[in-house]
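Our collaborator T.R. sent over the components below with a one-line note: 'Predict the complex.' Nothing else. No constraints on interfaces, no templates requested, no preferences about which chain binds where. So this is a plain run: every listed entity goes in together, and whatever single assembly comes back becomes the starting point for the next discussion.
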Amino acid sequence: MTCDTLNPMPGAAAFRRPADQVMQLPRLGVSHPTRLSFLRQMLRRLQSEAWVFDRPVWQIDARGVGRATYRAVGRERSYTLVAFAHDLPADQRSDRVIATAWDATFALYDGTPTQDDLDRLAANVPLQEAGRISPRELTLSRANRSVRLFDHVIDKLALGQQPDAALLEQTGYLMRTTAVYGSGKFGAADRCTVATRPELAAPFQAEMLTVWFIRAFSVDLVEHLAQMRGGGVAVRLNPELRRGLGVGNSTGLGMAPFLIRHPILLNNWIMAREEALARVRALPIACNDSQTAFAQALSEARGNAAHWQSGHPLQVTRLAGLRADLSAIADHLAQEPDVLSAPHPWDRLWRWGQEHLQTEGQEALLALLLEPQGALVDGLGDCMQADEDAGFAVQGAMSLADLHAILVKHYGWAQAFDFTDPAVSARFWYVSEEKHEPRLGQRQTEEGAAREEPLDIARQAQALAADLCGACVETVAEFALLYPQHRMMIRRAQISARHPYAEIQANLLAEDMLPIDLLRSKLAFFGASRFDPRSDRWVRISLFQGAPFPDEMVGAALNPSGQHHYG
Amino acid sequence: MADVGGLSVPEMRALAGKAARGAGLEWGLAEEAGWAAALLHAGGQDGAGLLARVLVGWRGCASLQVAAGQWRAHAPNLLLCALHVGVALVDFCGMDQGVSTARAVQIRPVAWPGFLLPHLAQTATRLSTDIELSWRNAGTKRLVVPAGGGLSFAQSPAGAELIGLSEAEIIVRVPPQRAEFEAGVWPRSPPACAYAPTGLEILRRFADETLVPASDASRRMGAGGADGD
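Returned assembly:
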């Protein structure tokens, strides 16, 4: 964090939750989006800075094949999503990362593309990983149709009717992205070359803009195809129904190692959220406006939870608990009307929640508490980026005693695991030869553990601590020369000393570790909602559900992501 | 593959880090190799080619013996590895054994000393002062590494010479007077990346050594996504 000098509430630090609580994987795995989530930050900026939007190119034929562009124009710069729509045979439609064809492919262009740019992108973007983009592009992505809903909506609109609201709600999106690449991938611009722009400074802003435009494209495409089919009879999608559509996303193991590989970034995300919660808890009184806004947010969250569907047994149980917990919060406020009149009312409510709510309910309450307090917490969004190179150099002059003290203070949790127990080291992370994507293997039954990826932080911390105790040198520099195998862990430990939320306090090799918990913790920071695990290692979510479309931004309420439901 | 440009800096960093790991280096050193190759690449140098040479030869290098003012190979007839030396220069800078305003360090022959440049730049930044690198090659050559200035200094004639050397004994010190070793004005923006395809190919081969063939079990379990709905 670099914003300490700007902190309007230094006293809030006393209300911050400790890392031992926050960084537990089961708790991270029930994270909820908040107003600090990246898509919320983007929408606020686009609205407050009065960005304008247009669709300069629409060259899509009656089969739904062609190209289109969507442009966001700000005071200094513009960005354009270039979309390519394809005629994909049904038997080639797959969300797996090994797929080689998609219903639509996209690149986010830095500025307004020329015809030559469009032609260059047309030759590369549809190929995705097999193509090549340039530093003029910020993202590369693709999406597939939700066939059942996509065809239903076209059928109905072509007949001059609106689609079945229940069916819309059941799926929640017309298209789902299967990959959104940014930050230098496949030749795209390096993030460090654009991160000084205010609109791209917060994490994943180019990716969020990409997905938001894909959402608009998905609706425009069904309306276009309905028009082609139905002619004058066809109608457009009812705005209320349209608002309830997001963009789906399938996320698998590929996203999981990110949080381990970017400890400073993870710290800054968590620190901003925890500081926001602490500031709210430190407020001495709850003014009427904030009480009203909290009640509104609670009501919307209950509606969202009621309509949130999942077939995964784990999520079904969690959802039942969440609905009960949100009801319990409402009941508590109704039965104890003085709660919000007492000193430090939000802190009282928070502490009540710690005693009476399950973990998922507690994290939902965190999001609710932040919702009315934009003026107090939104500025923390500026602290969620990270200069990761600043923490890269090992501090060689540090004494071994100090390094050991860091391990004791920040990695005590790692000492609890017995890695001689096969269940504790049951799995290993690796990168697959087929698609260069992260995978999980079973150590006892599968080959490849010799090429294990270094996500075994707890095991590394144990090994470092053991060797420190036997070392005969004084400084980290000397130790690192003798024990190069510990260099990565030394770096992490030194980072953790300055970044208390840098480490997820879990053994990622354990038999019972749930990769979907890693995925959800990251996706919640994106602003994802309606988490729907499909196994222990991949999840479907929705982005921008309930958010305004580009043509609705002026004066629109930026409701919490996913809080929309069909009333 | 339609190629409309060279590798981006993040791509180079990722590839170089994997290659270093695939070549057998520990993870923490592989991270350093990726960082250093990417910095060279960003500065318009052939980071891929230099790292490839380092990785091909590092197992034949001697381990580093660090003492105040004198860094030597444990085995006197072997060269030192530029990656290991560079990392140690940063780790020990300001300490009794390392480069400081009070002490120079003489380093016995280093293989491919051009790969030291990123870590030398980091050392200068950490010491908050320019540092000077000198070596003998038909006379004494000097190169000033500025603090906080990136790698544009490597575009100087002396920088180009160093990058081309396969080995050199070097001395690293803080120059007594800044003006004595004026760096000169070199292009501030890097030239177009001119990586050698052979270097990239070598890195890719090493990087492949980090990959694991998917097992039937992992295919059954899947990693994400499905086949539509």
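Summary for T.R.: The radius of gyration of chain B is 19 Å.
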